What does this fold into?
Amino acid sequence: MDPWTFWLGGSLALGGGLLTVTRKNAVASVLWLIVAFLGMSTLFLGMDAGFIGVLQILVYAGAIMILFLFVIMLLNLTPSGLLRMDRPRGTTLGLASAAAFIALIVAIVTGGQQWTGGQGGGSEAAILERTGEASMLEGSVLDIADQLFNAHLLPFEAASVLLLVAIVGAVALTKRKL
Amino acid sequence: MDMLLSSPTLLASALASIGGEITTSHYIVLSALIFGVGLFGVITRKNAVVILMSLELMLNGANLAFVAFSRHHGNLQGQVFVFFIIAVAAAEAAVALAIIIAMNRVKGSVNLDDATELKG
Amino acid sequence: MDKLNLILLVPELLAVAAGIGVMLWDLWLPREKKIALSTASMVAAVVLFLSTFIPAVAEGGHAMGGTFLVDGMALLMKRAFAVTALFVFLISREYVEDLERGQGEFYTLCLLALSGMFLCASVNDFMSLFVALEVVTVSFFVLVAFKRRSTKSVEAGLKLLVIGSVSAALLLYGIAFVYGATGTVFFDELRADVVAPDFIVSTELVIGLFLIFLGLGFKTSAVPMHVWVPDVYEGAPTPVTAFMSVGSKLAGFVLMLRVLEVFGRSAAIAAELTPFLALIGALTLFYGNLGAIPQTNIKRLMGYSSIGQCGYILLGIAAAWTMGMSGALFYMVSYVFTNMLVFGVIVYVARATKSHDLDDYSGLARSNPMLCAAMTIGLLSLAGVPPLMGFVGKLLLLGSAFGSPELHWLVYVGLINVVIAMYYYLCVIKRMWIHDARSPAKPVAPMRVKIALGISVLILLAGGFAPQILEGLTAPAAAELGLPSRPR
It folds into this structure.
């Protein structure tokens, strides 16, 4: 856990996220979201989660975001639709609930001993001491595949049903002639 | 409640450690921030496409927490979970965009505030 | 433990196969013969119901390396889901016949949603829980927006989508915290861990569980994740509303029971969860029952009523001991027949009058006495009038909450709400029997629906007069769950 990877990836992810939700133009939002995903990917790679880091770029930034761009172009959102953005009540409510959630989690995480530095906690040395060899797990394709097809076969198969539902559903909702 | 009130000082002390050692809690605080930003977007924005993007941001906050915990515990379950979250997010995005297109066809708008047919 | 044991998954596999089969058959059928798909789906639902009685399945056990569990609760709920689906197929035949397209897709999505519900009943780790829940949720996103030319339907789909996704994210964040606090997502390991003497109940774990219950509360329409219910119930096609009000709701409840069963073994965790769930239950009861009073649309009324009914089941879940679980299971089974009875009538009244105004029900006693009687029995059972099944369910749930002294206030809240609910259900009943008809429309139900409604009425009466029959099924299933057999 190189500190600078964390701060670089973290600021990219958070900054990109903030810009995503505040941009008036939906296309700009998509592009900033891709920046945020690159930041997330940096964080994953920094944590030795190689496969997930690559998936993040391939699937999220690559496939899902392109789908979003396609839809935005397809809908041909008019500039006026893009420029009118906030509801006054919504902003206060949104700020309040987001702040409450963040405050709650931060208070719990930093108030507890479990994940912060110190004995048996979340520091590098403590993790290494607790997990030993296991902390060297690379999160490579092989390791993940081994988990997927052994311990987690059921959700894997269920996910295939989910994808079938999504395909059938998307076609049923949008195809002009069925 | 007093834990909630003291959270700004705790956050400040966490930020003061820039350049110092990065612990699991750093990642979790960051994930909470990203989740919160997404939540803010979902509540404030009215363009359905942007709301969907904010939702993806919320899911990413959870993803970050999972990977951090995966490292924390030295097992891969968290990373495998992220794999499923990404798959589910893709399926959800496909259906969501289909609904948005259908909405645009019947109403000519994708603003959630224009969805007024159902009151409540 | 490490065996695949695929035989246990037969109901799930058959449900997926039926969904795919209907989808493929749809391609070959000419337009005028599509109605065969409806018959095929009904047959599939019956076969799925029977498949839970295959000896190897009914015996129960673990499969898929311990991530799939068949126990008494899972079997009971799978049967309830199959019956629900059968009802939905029975009452949706005319609706689907009128669709200009997508008939095969409608049944495919219903059957795949059913496979997701089956999975929900049997999940034994957090990953399967999440994916199974999403199979159900995503199917309903599509089904709710299925009338894609209708503004109401698409809007309802969009609302469901936004709130459903937010709650899925909350659920995930909660699971992340539980995983962070315990280091595993497998329920079997968690069951052993939480009762270990050196297990520390950390704030992280408790907050994670709170978030999980909030996320599942979306499916069960518990406050504060209830906001979509009235709108979506009104906007969705009526057969889908019926399916959602029972199937999707019970899928949420069975997951709540499962999570509670895993973590409630530890008295320390249960002590943290009980006040939280009790508070949510009380808010849900008041919100649903007070909100129902001013409604003038029967589907919105049923939406609020379904929020209120959710509150009662939460009473039993909050009590977190065997009687509460048994009461919750009993109530859920009776809810299948009660709500399907009411929706069966709503579908055919709406077919005649082309609207869902409460005014349509004035004078139903004269235009179709049989439907009127069925609706009356259904509403009385929802209200909890003896000697119907809903009364026994409420009694069990309130009794289980009464067992623990700290929940006595909740019992009073429940009793106040019984009175409020009685008021608005009786208003509808009075309208049907005493008021004069506003429209000349004469609702008619086909023979197969009449038979189904008749059987439901008989079951509601039998469940009221001889509750020990059903209790003989729910009590052992609840006892298996490993929660304390005495109130805490």
In short: Chain B touches chain A through 84 residues (CB under 8 Å). Residues 77-107 of chain B form the longest helix (31 residues).
